[in-house]
Amino acid sequence: MSTLLVTGACGFIGSNFVHHVLSRRPESKVVAVDNLSPTGNLANLDSVRDRIELEVCDICDYDAMLALYERCRPDYVVNFAAESHNDRAIVAPTSFARTNGWGTQILLEVSRNVPVRRHLQVSTIEVYGEMPAGVEAFREGSPLNAKTPYSAAKAAGDLFVRAYMQTYPKMDIVMTHCANNYGPYQFPEKLIPVAITNVLQGKPVPIYGDGLQKRDWLHVEDHCAALLGLLEAPRFDFTVEEAVEDAGKLPIYDISARQEKTNLEIVRRIIELLGRDPGSFIEHVADRPNHDRRYLIDPAKLEREMNWRPRVPFDEGLKSTVDWYVKNENWWRDILQRHQSLQFDWSKTTA
Question: 282 has which bridge partners?
Fold first, then answer.
């Protein structure tokens, strides 16, 4: 039986991955780690609490993580732990730098000193920055060009991962970048859950600026399937010389379903799925500072080497996501009651 240590396990993607692993590999032992920051939600794991070992721990605490590794002896480590909301990163960037940059390095160092079979770092499309004119899509070898505090902190973590890959060749490290995820258990501060929960409360849905920002959307279940496949794959071989010429030769994989939509398209569709008139619920509001206009990643490397394909069509996935929030009203209302307002008014908030 393999032991998986999953950090950020009470967050959106982390909790979905725990559910996915227990469904696909029920013989595995899962150690779910989370520091229960404001976006960590124990309720995300309620249905599997009797099948996991839950540890409240901060990945930035080297001594605590070292003790946990030595006690649990994980075979695999998957790091989802991150501060991930661009709006909050603009107002208070320090915690993002701490977790996304320093925390990534701390966890790598623990995996170096208490060796594991594979250490998987889950990163984001946003480290590549905004897509310049004439670029078809970002790929694994594209330069890191983060332009927001959140994406800069994730890019700092990326650089540590790349450095550890090349400096410590005995370590087996893999890193991924994912497109924008959607699905169940997403904290209601991101576009899709904000739109759904606002409409269900009879409130307008705020759209930043003209709403024509384009995003690349990936259902969280397809993301989890790709991650599990990469976790179990044979070791990925490369040479430092190859990586100097092309960073895409490193064990880095971009995960996308090639489903690009504007924010406005998505919100309109959600409102229609809930049987309401988009014209009555959409409210254009002041845009946040330095808002990326468009980014897109190419999953060809993952498709070619891992034979991975997304299985959830966007329309089907969006409908099932809307249905999940309708059926799980207590889940999101409890969050809203504890956190009050999760949305920023950039006409009144200064960066």
Answer: 205
Nearest CA among 219, 187, 200, 166 for reference residue 83 = 187
What's the residue count for the chain? Answer: 351
Separation between Cα atoms, residue 260 and residue 258, nearest integer Å: 6
Sheet strand arrangement including 118-124: 52-56, 29-34, 3-7, 76-79, 118-124, 173-178, 252-255
The pLDDT tens digits for 163-182 are 999 999 999 999 999 999 99
The DSSP letter of residue 294 is: B
CB atoms within 10 A of CB 307: 8
Question: Rounded CA gap, 49 and 45, in Å?
Answer: 6
Q: Comparing C-alpha atoms, which of 124, 190, 175 is closest to residue 325? A: 190
The span from the CA of 119 to the CA of 177, in Å, is 15
Single out the residue of 255, 279, 273 nearest to residue 315, CA to CA: 273
Report d(CA 241, CA 238) in Å as an integer: 8
Greatest distance between any 2 Cα atoms in the chain: 58
Reported as a single tens digit per residue, the pLDDT across 263-307 is 999 999 999 999 999 999 999 999 888 888 999 999 999 999 999
Nearest to 124, CA basis, from 86, 92, 76? 86
Residue with tokens 């409210």: 283
8 Å CB contact between 233 and 302: no
Token pair of 24 as six digits: 């696909």
Q: What sections of the chain are H helices per DSSP?
A: 12-24, 62-72, 86-91, 94-96, 104-113, 149-167, 191-200, 220-232, 240-245, 263-273, 278-281, 300-306, 314-327, 329-339
- Using CA atoms, how far residue 177 sits from 9, 99, 119, 121, in Å, is 18, 17, 15, 9
Whose CA is closest to 199, among 266, 299, 272? Answer: 272
**Residue that is written with structure tokens 């520091």 in the block:** 35
43 contacts: CB under 8 Å, gap ≥ 6: 331, 334
In sequence order, which residues have a C-beta less than 8 Å from that of residue 325 and are 6 or more positions away?
A: 184, 193, 196, 197, 200, 332
* Structural tokens at position 201: 């409360």
The owner of tokens 């939600």 is 41
